[in-house]
Amino acid sequence: MIWDELETGLAGLAADGLLRRRRVLDSPCGPEAVIDGQRLIAFCSNDYLGLANHPALIATVQDAAARWGVGGGASHVVSGHLRPHEVLEERLAAFVGQERALYFTTGYMANLAVAPTLVERHDAIFADRLNHASLIDAAQLARAEHIRYPHGDLDLLADRLQQSRARRKLILTDAVFSMDGDLAPLPELLELAERFDAWLVVDDAHGFGVLGPHGQGSLAHFDLPPSPRLILMGTLGKAAGVSGAFVAGDHRVIEWLMQRARPYIFTTASSPVIAAALLTSLELIAAGDDRRAHLQNLIAQLRDGLTGLPWQLLPSLTAIQPLIIGENQAALTLADQLLTHGLWVPAIRPPTVPAGTARLRISLSAAHTVEQVDALLAALRACATPHPPLPASPS
Ligand SMILES: *Cc1c(COP(=O)(O)O)cnc(C)c1O
C-alpha cells in the first residue's frame, strides 16, 4: 500500500536524523524569537539587515493596503500588474544598474523561469555543484544538457564549455553559496561566458542588500562591467525583509521572460502591498551603510571568537557562517544543547548539504547586538568542553 511506503519512508528519515520539524513562532522575525513560551536568541533567518519587522515597512504596508487593497487578483499579464509593481521594477533596475527588471512572487519561481525559458533541448546548462536547489530544479525543467562542475572549478568549466557543441549555453551560479557563505568567482565566470559565447545567470539571493556599495549586491561588489551576457536574479525576502524576487538584465532577455516564462505568466501577481513595502525597503537598503558596517563587525567578532573551537569554520566573509559538524546526529545534538542555553541555530543536513557535512548554519543580522553574539560564543565554548568522564559503575 502506498501509505505503508510513506510510513516506512518517514521512519527512515527519522532514523537518519533527517526529519524536519517546524517551530511555531509567537513573535515577528527578529533576533529574539518566542517559541513555546520560551524566549530564544535566533541565528536562523536571512533577514540580514533587520528590515523584516522595520516600522517604516509596517507603516508603508498599512498605507498601501488602504490605497491599493490587498490582492492583485490576476496574473501580471492579465490585470494584476498595479502601479506599485511597475514602479518597483523601474527602481530595481536602476538600483542594480541593469536595463530592465521583472518582479516575481518568489526566488524559487524566478529561477524556474529563467533557465527553462532561455534554453531547451540541444542547449546546455553549466552549473556549480553547490548551487541552490531551485537552480538545480530549473536545469531539470529546462530539458537541456545539465553539466554540473565541482564547486568553483573554473578549469573544468572552461574545458566543458570548450567541448560543448550546444547552440545556447547558460552558466548558472549562486553568487554567495547559501550553505557555505563563500563567493563565486564572478569576474572569471563572466570572462568564460564572453569567451565561449554563453549567458551567465547569477543568483544573488544572499548578496543583494548586503554586499557592494549601497548594498547593490555581488556584481557591484566585484565591480563587474555591464554585459548583455549577465542575467541577475535577486531575492527580496532575505536582506530586503519582505518577499519576492527579480530578474534583471538586457531588455530583450527581460521582455522574452515576460512574454514566455510560465512561472511568470501562470501565477497570480503578489499583493501590491508587498511591492509598496519593497519600495520602502529599497530606500532603507540604499541608505543602510550603518547597518552593513555593524553586520561586518558582528561577522568579524563571531569569526574571531570561534577560533580554537573543535569545529571547522568555512572561509566566509558574508552573514552566512557555517560550522561544519559532520554527522547528522552530532549536528542535531549540538543544536539541542544550544537551545538549552536559549540560543536557536539551525542544524542543516542532507539533502540541503552533502552527506557527512551536516552543519550549524549561523546567520547574522544587523539587528543582532554584540552581546547576543557574545552569548552565542560563550555557549559554543561551553558545548565544546568535553564533559568529565562518568565514574565507572560497579559491576
Ligand atoms: C532563498 C534562495 C532562493 C529562493 O528564494 P525565495 O524567494 O526564498 O523563493 C533562491 N536561490 C538562493 C541561492 C536562495 O538562497
Quick summary:
41% of the residues lie in helices and 16% in strands. With 395 residues, the chain is an alpha/beta fold.
Can you tell me about this structure?
The protein is an alpha/beta fold. Helices cover 41% and strands 16% of the residues. The chain has a 7-stranded mixed sheet with strand order 3-9-8-7-6-4-5, with helices on both faces. A 4-stranded antiparallel sheet has the order 10-11-14-13. The chain binds pyridoxal-5'-phosphate. Pyridoxal-5'-phosphate binds next to α4.
Give the helix/strand layout.
Layout: H1 2-15, E1 32-35, E2 38-42, H2 55-68, H3 83-96, E3 100-104, H4 107-118, E4 124-128, H5 133-142, E5 145-149, H6 154-163, E6 169-174, H7 186-195, E7 199-203, H8 218-221, E8 230-235, E9 245-249, H9 251-260, H10 262-265, H11 272-286, H12 289-306, E10 312-313, E11 320-326, H13 328-340, E12 343-344, E13 347-348, E14 358-363, H14 370-384
Parallel strand pairs: 2-12, 4-5, 4-6, 6-7, 7-8
Antiparallel strand pairs: 1-2, 3-9, 8-9, 10-11, 11-14, 13-14
